[in-house]
Task: inverse folding
């Protein structure tokens, strides 16, 4: 059998509402038995030959109860039961068998680390055995039945566990603050000297906790008394040892004239280099009040940049390049001067930068379709170009696609509007002069130099 609980009621009896044929598995009861499956029924209980025990195995509809036939294996072939045959719900052998099966199935006890033991009673000579469990005492644990009288609700069997825990049974770090009762720890529980700085919270020891005269000099860390712990004016002359104050105790610049007695600084106390000169870099806007060395002055004259305003220069010889910075020079007389020649690279588009000079040369290896001038002054400027045909010759130069300082294309104006036709012979030389007025180009030419 199986370990299960089947449903049963007292004194229920009904009839079949329809025939139960041999081999049929659905029983139709005329009345509701008042229970659902599982339940055992006896069909035709008063007939020794036709009596059959069936199990209503599943479902809740007594008019179509799914059944297991011939539970007693009494019939080789299931009998046929006519409609109206008596059906009784009674205690049968199977109830008792299943109750025994349930008892023998037992139960499981599991300890804290997951080990399981099945308590599974067996029947020996009609007696259940193997159903005793013992509580074993361990270290610090005492187990006793303290009441074994009768096991009633008012006087139950009482199993008392007494735990006597000593330090050997307490795991490391097992006793936390949450396990210690308030006010449980007193001075006798503390080992002398066990409270060190690590156990004291910040600022826990206040002045009120320190006995008078308890703190002596040996309790101070060297250098631990800083200005914050000294009262104002606490360090007076009597507390300062003779010769204790040295130069490192002064803040730089803290000794001013008010702290220097009259006539204390004599010439013998002044370093010559500090009074007479001070080596430093001089700039054009230098406001330093120290006296520079002659080397610093020479460096300023030779190398530093300065702006001269409203100054008159006498006879001057220039030993290097002078940049005019696009400034106006008036009433000037030029004598024995030369212009810087720039070599213009031949290309279909000639690039000419007046910042590189106002005259130049080019040997044409291309026919020029575009001339781009840059850094042309906005008022009035000229550029003279000596043009030489290469060994091939017949190179042309268009003057209708000239740009000045990145503006749009312009056509250079020529005398009579005749335009420009270069000499075509190989190695022939022409001189072209561009005149710019407000960035508008005018062109003059002298052709076929030989």
Result:
């Amino acid at each position: 059998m199986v370990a299960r609980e089947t449903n049963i009621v007292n004194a229920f009896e009904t009839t079949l509402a329809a025939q139960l044929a041999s081999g049929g598995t659905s029983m139709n009861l005329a009345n509701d038995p008042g229970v659902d499956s599982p339940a055992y029924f006896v069909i035709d209980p008063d007939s020794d030959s036709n009596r059959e025990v069936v199990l209503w195995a599943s479902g809740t509809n007594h008019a179509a109860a799914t059944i297991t036939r011939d539970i007693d294996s009494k019939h080789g072939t299931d009998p046929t039961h006519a409609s109206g045959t008596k059906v009784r719900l009674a205690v049968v052998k199977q109830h008792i068998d299943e109750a025994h099966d349930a008892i023998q199935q037992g139960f499981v006890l599991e300890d804290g680390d997951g080990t399981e033991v099945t308590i599974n009673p067996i029947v020996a000579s009609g007696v259940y055995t193997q159903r005793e469990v013992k509580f074993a005492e361990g270290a610090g644990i005492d187990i006793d039945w303290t009441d074994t009288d009768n096991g009633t609700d008012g006087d139950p069997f009482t199993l008392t566990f007494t735990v006597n825990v000593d330090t050997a049974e307490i795991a490391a770090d097992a006793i936390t603050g949450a396990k210690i009762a308030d006010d449980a720890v007193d001075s006798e529980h503390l080992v002398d000297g066990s409270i060190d700085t690590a156990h004291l919270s910040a600022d826990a020891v206040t002045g009120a906790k320190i006995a008078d005269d308890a703190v002596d000099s040996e309790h101070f860390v060297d250098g631990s008394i800083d200005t914050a712990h000294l009262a104002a004016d606490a360090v007076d002359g009597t507390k300062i040892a003779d010769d204790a104050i040295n130069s490192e105790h002064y803040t730089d610049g803290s000794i001013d004239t008010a702290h220097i007695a009259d006539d204390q600084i004599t010439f013998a106390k002044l370093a010559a280099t500090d009074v007479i000169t001070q080596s430093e870099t001089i700039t054009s806007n230098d406001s330093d009040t120290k006296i520079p060395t002659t080397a610093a002055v020479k460096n300023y004259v030779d190398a530093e940049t300065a702006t001269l305003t409203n100054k008159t220069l006498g006879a001057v010889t220039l030993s290097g390049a002078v940049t005019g910075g696009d400034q106006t020079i008036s009433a000037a007389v030029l004598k024995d001067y030369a212009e810087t020649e720039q070599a213009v690279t031949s290309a279909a588009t000639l690039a000419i930068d007046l910042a590189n000079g106002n005259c130049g040369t080019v040997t044409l290896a291309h026919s020029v379709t575009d001339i781009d001038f840059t850094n042309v002054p906005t008022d009035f400027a000229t550029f003279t170009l000596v043009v030489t045909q290469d060994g091939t010759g017949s190179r042309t130069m268009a003057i209708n696609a000239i740009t000045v300082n990145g503006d749009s294309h312009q056509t250079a104006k020529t005398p009579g509007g005749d335009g420009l036709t270069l000499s075509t012979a190989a190695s022939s030389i022409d001189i072209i002069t561009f005149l710019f007025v407000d960035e508008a180009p005018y062109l003059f030419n002298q052709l076929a130099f030989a």
